[in-house]
Amino acid sequence: MALHQELSGSEVHTPFTFVYANEAARTGATGLISSDVNKLALQVDDYTVWILTDSSGPTWAPVSPTASEILTKLKTVDGDGSGLDADTVDGYHVGLGVGTIPPLRSDGVIELGQYIDLHYDNDFSSDYTCRLESDASGNLCVNGAVAGVAGDFPPKPQSASGVGQWVRIHRNSTSAGYYELPEGGTWVYFIVVFRDDDDDPVGEFSNTISGIAAGGTENIVSGSRQYSGFAWRIA
User: Fold this and answer.
1) Are 215 and 197 in contact (CB under 8 A)?
2) For position 18, what pLDDT does the model report?
3) What residues have CB less than 8 Å from 170, skipping those under 6 apart?
4) Total of domains in the chain
5) Are 103 and 148 members of one domain?
C-alpha cells in the first residue's frame, strides 16, 4: 500500500519561490527582503519567470523571454529562406477575396478584384483619377480620361454586331468603287492602299488611310484602288 505525505511551503521543491497572479501583483509585492534577491517568481497569467534583482522596489528581471523580446529576436533572422511564415502583412492576409493581398500563383497568374484605382497626384484622400475595371462580358474598361480618350475602352474585337465588332476591309478589283462603313455606332479604321490610280502597277503599295468615323460613312476609300484593312466599332 502506497503512502502519501502532504507537503506545503518550503517542503515543496519548485524552481521559483514566489507565485503572482499577474504583473501588477508581482511589481507591487510587499514583504520582500534582501535575502530574497536572486530568487525566482512565476507570473501565472502568462507563465513567465522573473528573478528578483532588488527587494526595495521591488525590481524584477525576466528569466523567460517576453513576447516583445521574442519578436525582437525573430526580426534578426526573418526574411527569405528563414522558414518563418507570417500570418498577415500589415494586418492583411495573403489570399483571394476582399481585404486580402493577392498572391502570384505558380502558373504566373494574379487574381485581382473588380477594379484598380489610379491616382495621378498620389493623393488618396480623393477618389480615383482613372479606374481600370472589368465588365460582365470580360472586357477591360477605363473609367476616366486616358491619353486623350474619354470614357471606356471598347471591348476586344469580335465578330458579333455591336460595340467591339471587327470587320475586314478588302477589295481586289481595279474598277471604280468606294467603301462604306457598316451602319451604326462609331468606327475606327485602318486601310493599306495597293493601287492609287491607273498609273500605278497593280499590287504596289501606295499609302495608308486611317481615322474615326460614324457608321454608314461613305467614300472611306474610293476610286480604282486595291486595298486591305479593317474597321473596329468602338461605340
Assistant:
1) no
2) 92
3) 227, 228, 229
4) 3
5) yes
Cα 232 to chain centroid distance, Å, stands at: 32
Mean of pLDDT over the chain: 77
Q: Which three cell numbers stand for residue 201?
A: 502597277
What own/partner pairs with CB < 8 Å and gap ≥ 24 does 115-124 have? 115/143, 118/144
Distance CA 93, CA 102 (A): 9
pLDDT value at 173 more than 70? no
**Within a domain: residue 158?**
no
Q: What pLDDT, on the 0 to 100 scale, is given for residue 24?
A: 94
Q: Which domain holds residue 228?
A: 166-233
The answer to whether position 127 is within a domain reads yes
Residue 24: exposure state from Cβ atoms within 10 A (0-12, 13-18, ≥19): exposed
User: Is-above-0.70 flag for pTM?
Assistant: no
More confident residue, 222 or 112: 112
Q: Is residue 189 part of a domain?
A: yes
